[in-house]
Amino acid sequence: MNPFRFVSDVSHEAIVVDRLFFLLVGISVLIAGLVTALVVIFGVRYRKDSPAPRRALPQMLKNEVEIGWISATAFLFFFIFWWAAAGELSALTAPKNALDIHIVAKQWMWHAQQPNGIREINEIHAPINTPVRLVMTSQDVIHSMFLPALRIKQDVLPGRYTYLWFNAQKAGTYHLLCAEFCGTEHSRMTGRIVLMTQPEYSRWTETEAPTHGLAAQGETLFRSLGCSGCHGPNASVHAPDLDHLYGHRVQLSDGRVVTADEAYLRDSILQPRRDIVAGYKPLMPSFRGIVSEDDIVRLIAYLKSLSTKNVLNQQGERQ
Ligand code: HEC
Ligand SMILES: [Cu+2]
């Protein structure tokens, strides 16, 4: 943990961010230096009572010079724009096979849940050379997940999910900070991200593993909350089968078609009246105030496991 590192080599994206940053600093220093030098030179040369000849009316430069100058600067700025935009766009969408780690922020701590159910406080363990996606929400106010070594930051909001992903290439322990003022102890809302090689990470998950993974905990909730009473195979209520749901498209009764992502599943549980599936009655009760953010994470992990199981089965049949 060296807070005074100027250059990060923890991930490919961090390296790109640094190069861009130093390019911009370099250009700014050059231009600021040039302007300062000219101010000083002209100030001295044309001071009051200086014998230097007054300047005549400005002369037009040759067209070629004007066009060359304008295209060169325009090209430079489009290049910077393209470079920054390309980096930013790839930072937005995580690869499909990313490892999902769920984060719930609350005043004043970070609560992480690994796919296999391990719970961590103010600490995130993650493997390197693997795309890792943080699926984040807040239980109270707005927080912001800041991982300076990876050069990434994302606000964490109550009532919805935001995402952050990275593919680290260097193991180590790095800072994790809250970058949005969130109350008295905001400055103490810090932690560490521990990046490990894949064998180390598997060993860690094995030694720490609780008896029940996240999806299994979700399945237990699914039964104890009565979801299975409506969504199960022998239900008397006409409710959609949730097996094929995650990642697939859903036709809603008002004609919209949406993709069932984490946000959709969360909304289905907390505000079921908002998106009614086509062909069904709005019979599902809202679970707002009944399930905590952590429980929603578990339920979603369970629903996701139903859909991956299905994809595997389909592949198995095809082979
Ligand atoms: C009283 C019966 C009932 C209970 C209990 C119930 N649901 Fe539902 N659920 C429905 C019905 C009916 C729909 C379809 C209408 C709609 O979209 O609201 C639905 C829709 C959904 C959808 C969207 C399905 C799709 O195909 O897009 C999800 C996800 C869901 N329920 C999850 C849950 C979870 C998780 C629980 C337990 C916390 C639960 N449900 C409890 C009846 C129920
Ligand atoms: Cu915070």
Report what the structure shows.
This protein is α+β, with helices and mostly antiparallel strands. Among the domains are: 99-208, Immunoglobulin-like (Sandwich), CATH 2.60.40; 214-318, Orthogonal Bundle (Cytochrome Bc1 Complex, Chain D, domain 2). The protein is built from seven helices and twelve strands. The chain has a five-stranded mixed β-sheet with strand order 3-2-1-5-8, covered by helices on one side. It has a five-stranded mixed β-sheet with strand order 4-10-9-6-7. The two termini are 48 Å apart. 23% of the residues are buried. Mean pLDDT is 86; it is low at 310-319. The chain binds heme C and copper (II) ion.
Blueprint (SSEs and pairs):
Elements: H1 12-45, H2 63-92, E1 99-106, E2 109-113, E3 119-121, E4 123-127, E5 132-138, E6 143-147, E7 152-156, E8 162-166, E9 172-178, E10 190-196, H3 198-208, H4 214-224, H5 227-231, E11 249-251, E12 257-259, H6 262-270, H7 293-318
Parallel strand pairs: 1-5, 4-10
Antiparallel strand pairs: 1-2, 2-3, 5-8, 6-7, 6-9, 9-10, 11-12
Helix pairs in contact: 1-2, 4-7
